[in-house]
Amino acid sequence: MNLDLFKNQVRFKIALELIDQDEGMSIMQLNKRLDDVPQATLYRHVNAMLQDSLLKVIGVQRAGKVEEKIYALNTSGYKIKEEDWASATYDEKVNFVSLYFMYILQNYKNYQETLSLTDSPDQATFSLVKLNLPDETFRTFESELAALLEKYHGLSAHHEEAETKRTVSLVIIP
Fold this sequence. Notes:
By secondary structure, the chain is mainly α. Helix 2 packs across helix 3. The longest helix is centred in the middle third of the chain and has 29 residues.
């Protein structure tokens, strides 16, 4: 994966708009949401993201006499292989981690905007725990945590429509 791709603000905005849109969006829908991005610029960046396998076409819809492609994130394009991460420079890693936190911040902002419309109580939680564990115990902790996340991620796949979507973010700094 080319980590430099995320340095482009327009492409990052496109990715943020599509991140939780399983049904995808057309250029026209993206253009309505990204009203600060000229349509020609949007087309150019979407095409570049398609070429870099960060987006994929998942369908076509008719809008009058025009057929519009529906774009979605190609989530496999956003996964970093272990060897790519290992060979990334410090600046590339910091850049990617910064974008990760920008995504989390965008999710929180969207959540707060929804709260203000629904008058619901804020249920967001944040934790920071420093663990002082021997390496082997820490590896066991990571393994158990990964298994727990996988278990509940698997359960959530069976309840897509009926339940509230929640974002769980975890960063481990050894």
